[in-house]
Amino acid sequence: MAATEQFMPMVARGDDAAAKLFAGDPVVDDPDSGRVAGAGGFADFARKSAGWFAETGAAVSLVRTTAAGGREITEQVLRWSESTLPMALVGDVADDGRLSALRIYHSTWPLTGGHAVRPALLAGNPDAVLSDVVDDYQRYVASKHLDGVMATFEPDAYVRESSGVEHRGTDALAAYYDRLFEFGEVILEHCTVTDDGTAAALEYNVVRWGPKELTPQAGVAVFERGPSGLLAAVRMYDDVDLGVA
Protein backbone atom coordinates (compact mmCIF):
# COMPACT_ATOMS: atom_id res chain seq x y z
CA MET A 1 0.00 0.00 0.00
CA ALA A 2 1.30 3.46 -0.90
CA ALA A 3 2.58 5.57 1.98
CA THR A 4 0.15 8.34 1.02
CA GLU A 5 -2.75 5.87 1.30
CA GLN A 6 -1.67 4.86 4.79
CA PHE A 7 -1.03 8.34 6.16
CA MET A 8 -4.48 9.75 6.91
CA PRO A 9 -6.01 6.52 8.32
CA MET A 10 -3.01 6.21 10.64
CA VAL A 11 -3.33 9.82 11.77
CA ALA A 12 -7.08 9.37 12.26
CA ARG A 13 -6.60 6.51 14.71
CA GLY A 14 -3.73 8.23 16.53
CA ASP A 15 -1.09 5.76 15.37
CA ASP A 16 2.35 7.09 16.35
CA ALA A 17 3.87 5.00 13.57
CA ALA A 18 2.65 7.59 11.03
CA ALA A 19 5.96 9.38 11.53
CA LYS A 20 7.74 6.24 10.31
CA LEU A 21 6.15 6.68 6.89
CA PHE A 22 8.83 9.34 6.33
CA ALA A 23 12.40 8.51 5.34
CA GLY A 24 13.72 11.31 7.57
CA ASP A 25 12.13 13.93 9.80
CA PRO A 26 8.51 14.44 8.73
CA VAL A 27 7.77 17.38 6.45
CA VAL A 28 4.09 18.11 5.83
CA ASP A 29 2.42 21.10 4.17
CA ASP A 30 -1.18 21.29 5.39
CA PRO A 31 -3.92 23.87 4.59
CA ASP A 32 -4.79 24.31 8.27
CA SER A 33 -1.43 23.97 10.02
CA GLY A 34 0.90 25.34 7.36
CA ARG A 35 4.33 23.76 7.11
CA VAL A 36 4.98 21.10 9.74
CA ALA A 37 8.60 19.98 10.05
CA GLY A 38 10.52 17.86 12.50
CA ALA A 39 9.49 15.25 15.05
CA GLY A 40 8.06 17.67 17.60
CA GLY A 41 6.02 19.67 15.13
CA PHE A 42 4.70 16.51 13.52
CA ALA A 43 3.70 15.05 16.89
CA ASP A 44 1.65 18.19 17.63
CA PHE A 45 0.07 18.08 14.18
CA ALA A 46 -0.80 14.38 14.51
CA ARG A 47 -2.26 14.86 17.99
CA LYS A 48 -4.44 17.78 16.87
CA SER A 49 -5.60 15.88 13.78
CA ALA A 50 -6.42 12.73 15.77
CA GLY A 51 -8.46 14.86 18.16
CA TRP A 52 -10.48 16.28 15.27
CA PHE A 53 -11.17 12.77 13.93
CA ALA A 54 -12.24 11.61 17.40
CA GLU A 55 -14.52 14.62 17.86
CA THR A 56 -16.22 14.41 14.46
CA GLY A 57 -16.13 10.65 13.93
CA ALA A 58 -14.92 11.30 10.38
CA ALA A 59 -14.15 8.27 8.22
CA VAL A 60 -11.55 8.14 5.43
CA SER A 61 -12.40 6.55 2.09
CA LEU A 62 -10.02 6.06 -0.84
CA VAL A 63 -10.81 7.39 -4.31
CA ARG A 64 -7.63 6.45 -6.22
CA THR A 65 -3.85 6.72 -6.15
CA THR A 66 -1.83 7.97 -9.10
CA ALA A 67 1.87 7.10 -8.90
CA ALA A 68 4.77 7.65 -11.27
CA GLY A 69 8.27 9.09 -11.29
CA GLY A 70 8.86 9.03 -7.55
CA ARG A 71 5.59 10.74 -6.65
CA GLU A 72 2.25 9.50 -5.27
CA ILE A 73 -1.07 11.35 -5.34
CA THR A 74 -3.73 9.75 -3.17
CA GLU A 75 -7.28 11.10 -3.38
CA GLN A 76 -9.48 10.50 -0.36
CA VAL A 77 -12.78 11.76 1.00
CA LEU A 78 -13.44 12.44 4.68
CA ARG A 79 -17.07 11.98 5.72
CA TRP A 80 -18.73 12.96 9.00
CA SER A 81 -22.32 13.79 9.90
CA GLU A 82 -23.72 15.37 6.73
CA SER A 83 -20.35 16.73 5.61
CA THR A 84 -17.74 15.58 3.10
CA LEU A 85 -14.21 16.87 2.52
CA PRO A 86 -12.38 15.82 -0.67
CA MET A 87 -8.62 15.69 -0.04
CA ALA A 88 -5.50 14.95 -2.06
CA LEU A 89 -2.18 13.92 -0.53
CA VAL A 90 0.89 14.38 -2.73
CA GLY A 91 3.98 12.54 -1.54
CA ASP A 92 7.53 12.80 -2.82
CA VAL A 93 8.80 9.24 -2.42
CA ALA A 94 12.32 8.23 -1.38
CA ASP A 95 14.12 5.20 -2.82
CA ASP A 96 12.89 2.96 0.01
CA GLY A 97 9.23 3.79 -0.67
CA ARG A 98 8.87 6.10 2.30
CA LEU A 99 8.02 9.79 2.03
CA SER A 100 10.53 12.60 1.81
CA ALA A 101 7.77 15.24 1.90
CA LEU A 102 3.97 15.35 1.93
CA ARG A 103 1.67 18.09 0.62
CA ILE A 104 -2.01 17.97 1.61
CA TYR A 105 -4.58 19.81 -0.50
CA HIS A 106 -8.22 20.54 0.32
CA SER A 107 -10.66 23.40 0.47
CA THR A 108 -11.59 24.97 3.79
CA TRP A 109 -15.15 25.53 2.58
CA PRO A 110 -16.61 22.26 3.98
CA LEU A 111 -14.96 23.04 7.33
CA THR A 112 -15.59 26.77 7.79
CA GLY A 113 -17.99 27.89 5.07
CA GLY A 114 -15.28 30.16 3.68
CA HIS A 115 -12.11 30.14 1.62
CA ALA A 116 -8.53 30.73 2.75
CA VAL A 117 -5.81 31.92 0.41
CA ARG A 118 -3.10 29.28 0.26
CA PRO A 119 0.30 30.53 -0.90
CA ALA A 120 2.27 28.64 -3.51
CA LEU A 121 4.01 25.54 -2.19
CA LEU A 122 6.11 24.90 -5.30
CA ALA A 123 7.74 27.00 -7.97
CA GLY A 124 6.49 26.87 -11.52
CA ASN A 125 8.26 24.33 -13.71
CA PRO A 126 8.26 24.69 -17.52
CA ASP A 127 9.06 20.97 -17.80
CA ALA A 128 5.74 20.04 -16.11
CA VAL A 129 3.95 19.34 -19.39
CA LEU A 130 0.60 17.62 -19.85
CA SER A 131 -0.20 15.33 -22.77
CA ASP A 132 -3.06 14.18 -25.02
CA VAL A 133 -6.61 14.95 -23.90
CA VAL A 134 -5.48 16.44 -20.59
CA ASP A 135 -3.41 19.06 -22.40
CA ASP A 136 -6.32 19.70 -24.79
CA TYR A 137 -8.63 20.26 -21.82
CA GLN A 138 -6.27 22.76 -20.17
CA ARG A 139 -5.80 24.73 -23.39
CA TYR A 140 -9.53 24.93 -24.04
CA VAL A 141 -10.29 26.02 -20.48
CA ALA A 142 -7.58 28.69 -20.65
CA SER A 143 -9.08 30.05 -23.89
CA LYS A 144 -12.71 29.76 -22.69
CA HIS A 145 -13.54 27.47 -25.64
CA LEU A 146 -16.70 25.73 -24.44
CA ASP A 147 -17.14 23.40 -27.41
CA GLY A 148 -13.49 22.38 -27.17
CA VAL A 149 -13.77 21.64 -23.46
CA MET A 150 -16.92 19.58 -23.95
CA ALA A 151 -15.22 17.54 -26.69
CA THR A 152 -12.62 16.32 -24.17
CA PHE A 153 -15.24 14.58 -21.98
CA GLU A 154 -17.00 11.26 -22.20
CA PRO A 155 -20.81 11.68 -22.17
CA ASP A 156 -21.22 10.57 -18.54
CA ALA A 157 -18.11 12.33 -17.23
CA TYR A 158 -18.11 14.48 -14.12
CA VAL A 159 -16.20 17.37 -12.60
CA ARG A 160 -15.91 17.63 -8.84
CA GLU A 161 -15.04 21.01 -7.40
CA SER A 162 -12.84 21.38 -4.34
CA SER A 163 -15.92 22.05 -2.22
CA GLY A 164 -17.28 18.61 -3.15
CA VAL A 165 -19.94 19.94 -5.53
CA GLU A 166 -20.20 17.59 -8.52
CA HIS A 167 -21.33 18.26 -12.09
CA ARG A 168 -22.08 15.10 -14.07
CA GLY A 169 -23.18 14.58 -17.65
CA THR A 170 -23.11 16.77 -20.74
CA ASP A 171 -25.78 19.29 -19.72
CA ALA A 172 -24.45 19.83 -16.20
CA LEU A 173 -20.86 20.18 -17.43
CA ALA A 174 -21.81 22.66 -20.15
CA ALA A 175 -23.70 24.76 -17.60
CA TYR A 176 -20.77 24.68 -15.18
CA TYR A 177 -18.18 25.79 -17.74
CA ASP A 178 -20.51 28.40 -19.18
CA ARG A 179 -20.75 29.98 -15.71
CA LEU A 180 -17.01 29.58 -15.14
CA PHE A 181 -16.14 31.37 -18.35
CA GLU A 182 -18.33 34.34 -17.41
CA PHE A 183 -15.71 35.11 -14.76
CA GLY A 184 -12.86 35.10 -17.29
CA GLU A 185 -9.81 32.97 -17.91
CA VAL A 186 -8.30 30.89 -15.11
CA ILE A 187 -4.56 30.71 -15.71
CA LEU A 188 -2.47 28.03 -14.02
CA GLU A 189 1.27 27.83 -13.49
CA HIS A 190 2.31 24.17 -13.73
CA CYS A 191 4.52 22.77 -10.96
CA THR A 192 4.49 18.95 -11.21
CA VAL A 193 2.82 16.40 -13.48
CA THR A 194 2.34 12.76 -12.43
CA ASP A 195 0.82 10.52 -15.09
CA ASP A 196 0.28 6.76 -14.74
CA GLY A 197 -1.42 6.39 -18.12
CA THR A 198 -4.95 6.32 -16.72
CA ALA A 199 -4.87 9.49 -14.65
CA ALA A 200 -2.70 12.59 -14.68
CA ALA A 201 -2.26 14.74 -11.57
CA LEU A 202 -1.20 18.37 -11.94
CA GLU A 203 0.12 20.43 -9.04
CA TYR A 204 -0.33 24.08 -9.94
CA ASN A 205 -0.46 27.67 -8.83
CA VAL A 206 -3.49 29.75 -9.85
CA VAL A 207 -1.92 33.01 -11.02
CA ARG A 208 -4.74 34.81 -12.81
CA TRP A 209 -8.53 34.84 -12.78
CA GLY A 210 -9.96 36.91 -15.63
CA PRO A 211 -8.22 40.31 -15.69
CA LYS A 212 -7.11 39.99 -12.07
CA GLU A 213 -3.58 38.91 -11.28
CA LEU A 214 -3.55 36.74 -8.15
CA THR A 215 -0.98 35.99 -5.52
CA PRO A 216 -0.06 32.45 -6.67
CA GLN A 217 -2.35 29.98 -4.88
CA ALA A 218 -1.52 26.29 -4.60
CA GLY A 219 -3.69 23.42 -5.78
CA VAL A 220 -3.76 20.04 -7.45
CA ALA A 221 -6.16 18.46 -9.94
CA VAL A 222 -6.53 14.89 -11.15
CA PHE A 223 -7.68 14.12 -14.68
CA GLU A 224 -8.91 10.56 -15.11
CA ARG A 225 -9.23 9.12 -18.60
CA GLY A 226 -12.05 6.76 -19.49
CA PRO A 227 -12.01 3.72 -21.81
CA SER A 228 -12.38 5.95 -24.87
CA GLY A 229 -9.30 7.99 -23.97
CA LEU A 230 -11.46 11.03 -23.24
CA LEU A 231 -11.85 12.40 -19.73
CA ALA A 232 -14.13 10.48 -17.38
CA ALA A 233 -13.48 12.73 -14.38
CA VAL A 234 -11.76 15.91 -13.26
CA ARG A 235 -11.30 16.35 -9.52
CA MET A 236 -9.90 19.59 -8.06
CA TYR A 237 -8.30 20.32 -4.71
CA ASP A 238 -7.62 23.99 -3.96
CA ASP A 239 -9.19 26.88 -2.07
CA VAL A 240 -9.58 29.43 -4.84
CA ASP A 241 -13.01 31.07 -4.79
CA LEU A 242 -14.22 31.30 -8.39
CA GLY A 243 -17.79 31.96 -7.33
CA VAL A 244 -19.37 29.32 -9.57
CA ALA A 245 -20.25 26.51 -7.16
Characterise this structure.
The longest helix has 19 residues. The strands form 2 sheets. Strands 2-1-6-5-4-3 form a 6-stranded mixed β-sheet, with helices on one face. Strands 8-7-12-11-10-9 form a 6-stranded mixed β-sheet. The protein has 245 residues and is an alpha+beta fold. Helix content is 26%, strand content 41%.
Main beta-sheet strand count, sense and barrel state = 6 strands, mixed
Q: Pick out the low-confidence regions.
A: none
The proportion of residues in beta strands is 35-45%
Sheet with most strands: strand arrangement? 2-1-6-5-4-3
**What's the β-strand tally?**
12
What is the count of DSSP helices, taking H or I runs of 4+ residues?
6
What is the H/E string? HEEHEEEEHHHEEHEEEE
Rg is 18 Å
> Helix- and strand-based class?
alpha+beta
Helix content: 25-40%
Shape label: globular
Mean pLDDT: 93
Distance between the termini: 34 Å
Q: Which SSEs are present, and which pair or pack?
A:
Elements: H1 3-12, E1 27-30, E2 34-37, H2 38-56, E3 59-68, E4 71-80, E5 83-93, E6 99-105, H3 109-112, H4 132-142, H5 146-151, E7 153-160, E8 166-168, H6 170-182, E9 186-195, E10 199-209, E11 212-225, E12 231-238
Parallel strand pairs: 1-6, 7-12
Antiparallel strand pairs: 1-2, 3-4, 4-5, 5-6, 7-8, 9-10, 10-11, 11-12
